[in-house]
UniProtKB/TrEMBL annotation:
Protein name, entry field: Ribosomal RNA-processing protein 42
Organism the protein comes from: Fasciolopsis buskii
PANTHER family: EXOSOME COMPLEX COMPONENT RRP42 (PTHR11097:SF8), EXOSOME COMPLEX EXONUCLEASE RIBOSOMAL RNA PROCESSING PROTEIN (PTHR11097)
Ranges where the Exoribonuclease phosphorolytic domain occurs: 33-165
Keywords for the protein's UniProt record, in alphabetical order: Cytoplasm, Exonuclease, Exosome, Hydrolase, Nuclease
GO MF annotation, one: mRNA 3'-UTR AU-rich region binding
Length: 315
């Protein structure tokens, strides 16, 4: 089954579906095992390593100074697919997948995790704590070390954990400008040293999923919902279903985002144009199962992140 992308004979599919509807040794509605490590990069102000199934993602955060810019502080996120995980034909050009991941993470950061942080990222003058004389820019770099699917699922907690662990020495500055030659030292650390942290408003967690055809699910006697399909499983279903993504809040349990691209949406197409938009009980059950599993997964991920943060504090 390792080379399933090279050849997909019908007989192979039939033998597989008579026994089960997924390759991984997990139930259809079971999420992948995960592990959270924190402060794995000593050169960064905050970092984390997320292992989700066989997928591994590392994230590092650094704080830079933007001189003479007031209310210009921001968080900038970038994703890279390292080595063999990059399926782009041009290794020096970011792949489309990396660009989509960067865009998705940037949106979550600015709308959910740390919205409206520009004021908090101001640097203030020595003699006037009300006068802003510069800004911090926070650079978030995410590198996919091993890709076995569920990339967004791994990248979101990697970014979240890194921002939660982020701290840097607070700076103060003079009321002059960079062009003032008399100001040899424009910014300096407070004495005694005071560490600054980033306010994190919400903890989003993403769960990927797909729906397989009802006929196949009935044949194998399983649910048509597959949670966190691996890369091989997505390859297996590339002509029938694409991945969907549901993002929920660890704090409130609310659904923050739901997206499905090139995916099967059971019983929705025929009901979209209907005035009553009624779904059968079995169809509602599929979505209820998805939401329940996403909520459980978010709770487990939150507990793992909190445990990692506690470990960091006790060291």
């Amino acid at each position: 089954m390792g080379d399933i992308n090279l050849l997909k004979p019908l007989a192979l599919f039939e033998q597989l579906f008579e026994r089960r509807s997924r390759i991984e040794d997990r139930k259809n509605d079971e999420h992948a095992p995960f592990n959270v490590s924190i402060n794995v990069l000593q050169s960064c102000h905050g970092s984390s390593l997320i292992k989700l199934g066989n997928t591994e993602v590392i994230c590092g955060v650094k704080v830079k100074v933007l001189p003479d810019a007031v209310d210009a502080g921001c968080i900038v996120c970038n994703v890279e697919l390292a080595g063999l995980t990059n399926r782009s034909t041009h290794s020096n050009i970011p792949s489309r997948e990396a660009q989509i991941l960067s865009s998705s993470l940037q949106r979550l950061i600015t709308t959910t995790i740390c919205p409206n942080v520009s004021k908090h990222l101001n640097i203030y003058a020595h003699n006037n704590p009300q006068q802003a004389v510069g800004s911090y820019v926070i650079k978030v770099d995410v590198v996919v070390l091993h890709d076995d699917g569920c990339l967004l699922d791994a990248c979101v907690p990697a970014v979240l954990t890194s921002l939660l662990s982020l701290s840097w020495p607070k700076l103060s500055g003079s009321s002059g400008t960079v062009t003032d030659v008399s100001n040899c030292k424009l910014y300096e650390q407070l004495t005694p040293i005071e560490m600054q942290k980033l306010p994190v408003l919400d903890w989003p967690v993403t769960l990927s999923f797909c729906f397989i055809p009802q006929m196949i699910a009935l044949k194998s006697g399983t649910s048509p919902l597959i949670c966190q399909p691996s890369r091989r499983e997505l390859t297996l279903w590339d002509t029938d279903a694409g991945p969907g993504y549901i993002t929920v809040s660890c704090n409130s349990g609310n659904i923050l985002e739901l997206s499905m691209i090139n995916a099967l949406m059971p019983s929705l197409p025929e009901n979209v144009s209907s005035t009553e938009c009624k779904l059968s009980g079995s169809d509602v059950s599929k979505w209820q199962t998805l939401i329940k599993e996403a909520t459980n997964y978010a709770s487990g991920m939150k507990a793992a992140i909190l445990n990692a943060l506690d470990t960091m504090v006790t060291k």
